[in-house]
Sequence to fold (174 residues):
Amino acid sequence: MSESDTVTGGASPVRKIIHIDMDAFYASVEQRDNPDLRGKPVAVGGSAERGVVAAASYEAREFGVRSAMPSVTAKRQCPDLVFVKPRFEVYKAISRQIRDIFAEHTAIIEPLSLDEAYLDVTENLQGIPLARDIALRIRERIKAETGLNASAGISYNKFLAKLASDHRKPTVSS
Fold:
């Protein structure tokens, strides 16, 4: 069944939900804004004894560093880990920029956090028939305007769209 088909022979269109999730958002912003951090394991958060990792770059994730991990554990697992203090005002501004891109396609936006949202594009503002094409356009615009990467998943419900976007996330080397 194609995206343009309907469930009941014309009564109501199949829902088209896109889940957009920024890739390692806070850490990617820091690497974008500070070229010295590119290619290095980066953790956004507190490096003090009671600090916690808010976000980890993919380079840090290769060492098992994850968000919500105590900073001392992260440093033990990745001795070269570079800690960066969070800049939430910068992340919020970029998030607003990204939401403006979403709003060009649909008014039905359900933000989950600064770096992810569900979009219902069943009846989108640009009349694009395929959700895949909308997701590609959104990802391209985000990359062009912010220099950051986003993952996208598409389905007829939020749960499966989220699973799909997680499945398309960049992976760490094993």
Observations:
- Residues 25-84 form a domain with the MutS, DNA mismatch repair protein, domain I fold (CATH 3.40.1170.60).
- DSSP finds six helices and seven strands in the chain.
- The chain has two domains: 17-23+88-167, 25-84.
